[in-house]
Task: inverse folding
């Protein structure tokens, strides 16, 4: 299933900046960054639970937030884009 992950980490203190980097690095292991704090990740239910547990161990639940939007397996018809970036082809071969 395709999941859109968005996060907001309070970076007013150095500890928050460190958390922000850790959250981004963890999300990068699972998916593709489509905006600064937005990732598209293609995974199954078990992988999602592992990712959620990893993020829960990093964030400060009183200062930070993470949202998960499950787009499911038929996500290709649910994504429209505008502007300079085209649709991200997650889970498909990347030709360079």
Result:
């Amino acid at each position: 299933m395709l999941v859109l992950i968005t996060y907001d980490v309070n970076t007013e203190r150095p500890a928050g900046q460190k958390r922000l980097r850790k959250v981004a690095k963890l999300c990068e292991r699972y998916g593709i960054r489509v905006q600064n704090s937005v990732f598209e990740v293609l995974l199954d239910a078990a992988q999602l639970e592992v990712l959620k547990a990893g993020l829960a161990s990093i964030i400060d639940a009183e200062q930070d937030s993470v949202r998960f939007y499950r787009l499911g397996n038929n996500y290709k018809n649910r994504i429209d884009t505008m502007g300079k970036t085209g649709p991200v082809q997650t889970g498909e071969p990347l030709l360079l």
In short: DSSP finds two helices and four strands in the chain. The beta strands are 2-8, 31-35, 38-42, 65-72.
